Amino acid sequence: MWNRKRSVTLSIVVCFIFTLILTLGLFFGPWVVSQWLGVFRGLSAELPTLKEILTVFCVCFYPSSVYLLI
Question: Is 46 helix (H, G, I), strand (E, B) or coil?
C-alpha cells in the first residue's frame, strides 16, 4: 500500500538520481558530445566545426546546470 513515507522516500531517491546524472553530465558531457559527433556524424577532432559545437555546448550547458542544481 502506498503511503506518505514511501512517497517521500521515492522523491528523495529520484532527486539523488537526477543529481547524479547531472553531475556525470558536467564531467563527461563534452566528451560524450565529441564522441557522438565523431562516431555518428563523422566529424574529425581537428575540425574547427567540432570545436565550435563543443564551445556552444559548454556555454549553454554549464551555466544552465547551476540553476538545475539549485
Answer: coil
Q: What angle do CA 55, 58, 51 make, to 5 degrees?
A: 25
State the Cα–Cα distance between residues 16 and 9, nearest whole angstrom.
11
Give me the residue label for grid cell 503511503.
3
pLDDT digits (tens, 9 = 90+) for 28-61: 988 888 888 777 777 776 778 777 888 888 888 8
Residue 41 DSSP one-character state: S
Burial class (CB in 10 A: 0-12, 13-18, 19+), 66: exposed
Q: What's the full length of the chain, in residues?
A: 70
Q: Name the pTM for this structure.
A: 0.66
Predicted confidence (pLDDT) at residue 11 exceeds the cutoff of 80: yes
Q: Give the C-alpha separation, 14 to 10, whole Å.
A: 6
